[in-house]
């Protein structure tokens, strides 16, 4: 008796291209539908870890709250990418984009992103707290929100002279005046 494969082989990165850091944003755009979520970092594909249930609940509740409360000139989405440049992409947990938004895309350019939002998980602490803010700042994304879990706490940053400066943080009510007036009760997004 011989074992026969069931279905198609699952997609994996080309090991030679990975070693040579030879992937580009065009390669990412051409990934098959069954490929895992990835970020392109200096030509190398990094698989984005699957979020926990609590992480997902915060994200879904946040985007739903934003949909109900954002001014009409903005749109919130989750699990979409930011095409930074030819050799780099980012996969924020959620974004707030300037309207109108073409919903047929998975990737948006940094100039379309008003706020990049990351929810910190045990496996993404370093990247969400240190690496991603720097990358978003370098691309000119004007606002960055970092959400910590257990307890839920939101930190809001504004881009000032190429670096993010903390402008708000709360575990009770997240209040901002830019890029729009916002009063987000943290309990409404807490699992």
UniProtKB/TrEMBL annotation:
It holds the Pfam family Uma2. Gene3D superfamilies: tt1808, chain A (3.90.1570.10). Residues 25-179 form the Putative restriction endonuclease domain. GO terms for molecular function: endonuclease activity. It comes from the Bacteria. The keyword Transcription does not apply. The keyword Hydrolase applies. Keywords: Endonuclease, Hydrolase, Nuclease. PANTHER family: SLL1072 PROTEIN, SLR1083 PROTEIN. This is Uma2 family endonuclease. It comes from Paractinoplanes rhizophilus.
